[in-house]
Amino acid sequence: MTRVVFVLLPGVHLLDLAGPAQVFHGAYQLTYVAEREHLTSAQGLPVVAQTRWPELERDDLILVPGWRAATLRAGPRPREEELARLRAHHAAGGTVASVCAGAEALGLAGLLDGRRCTTHHDLQDELAARYPRATVVRDVLYTVDDRVVTSAGIASGIDLALHLFSARHGPAAAARVARDMVVYARRNGGEPQASAMLRHRAHLDDTVHRVQDLIDGHFTEPLPLSRLAAHAGVSERTLTRAFTRATGGLTPLRYQQTLRLERAEHLIGHGAMMESAAREVGFEDARMLRRLRARVTVRPAGRPSP
C-alpha cells in the first residue's frame, strides 16, 4: 500500500477522517477526493479536496469516512463515479474501507452483499434493513471480510486504520504509531463499541456520576463503600440505593468489578496471561477473575476473521 484515497462527502465527520489519516500519515501518500474542491465538515470546519482521482494500484486503499446525517437515507449520496471507483478497485484486488456512515457508500456500490460489515450502533438497524444481503455485525469495532473493511463510529476508525497498518507492517510498527498517537496499541475488532463506563452513564443523578468518576479513575484500587459515600457526601445506604437505581441494578462494587473484568478481557485478548491480567486490574490473584468470567457472559475479544 503506497497511497490512501479518502472519499469525502458533504458533512464529513472530522474524526472519521483525521483519525485514520493520522495513522497513515508519514507512511503513505494521502489523497483527498470529493465532488467539489471545497466542502464543509460536520463540525463546521472547511475542507479542501481535489476533484481528480489518482491512478490506483492494487495495494492502495480507498477509505470513505462517515458524515453527519440523522439516518443513512437522509445523508449525502455518493456520485456514480465514486461508486464505480470503489467497485473497480475492489474487483482489481484492492481494499476498500469505511468509517461509520461511510458503510452506506460501500452498500450502494454493492460491496456489502454477502459480506460481514458494521457501522455506528445508532445506524446498524437501518444498514441491515437497507442491505439485507449483508451480514451486519452489531456492537463491534470493525469487521474485515474479503478486502471490505468497515468500522463503527468516530474513534473506531483509528482501530481500523491501525489494524490495516499492522497487517502490512506488523504489530510492532502499528504499536509505535499508536504510541505516538497516545492511544491503545490496538483494540481488536470484536471488542464492544460501548464500554461499561459509557453503558452505565445514561442517567441524570449527579451524585452517582461523581462516584462513578472516582471509580472510573481508581477501579484497580480497593474502594470501600465508606470512602465512596464520603466522597459523595451521603450515607452508604443512600448511595447504594441511588447507584443501583441509576445504573439499572449495579451496586458500586459490581460496577467496579465490571470495569475490572472489561479491562482484564482486553488484556487477555492482547496476549496477557490470566494471572498477570488479574493483578493488573487489582485482584490479588486470578481466582476472583475466573469466578467473574464464569458468572458473566463475556464475548471473547478475538481477532476479526480476515
UniProtKB/TrEMBL annotation:
The keyword Repressor is assigned to this record: no
**Which residues does the UniProt record annotate as the domain HTH araC/xylS-type?**
209-291
InterPro entries from the UniProt entry: Class_I_gatase-like (IPR029062), DJ-1/PfpI (IPR002818), Homeodomain-like_sf (IPR009057), HTH_AraC (IPR018060), INH-QAR (IPR052158)
Name the UniProt key words of this record, in alphabetical order.
Transcription, Transcription regulation
Q: Name one GO molecular function term.
A: DNA-binding transcription factor activity
Which regions form coiled coils? none
**Claim: Repeat is one of the keywords in the record:** no
PANTHER family xref list: ARAC-FAMILY TRANSCRIPTIONAL REGULATOR, HTH-TYPE TRANSCRIPTIONAL REGULATOR RV1931C
Instruction: Kindly provide the name given to this protein in its UniProt entry.
Output: Transcriptional regulator
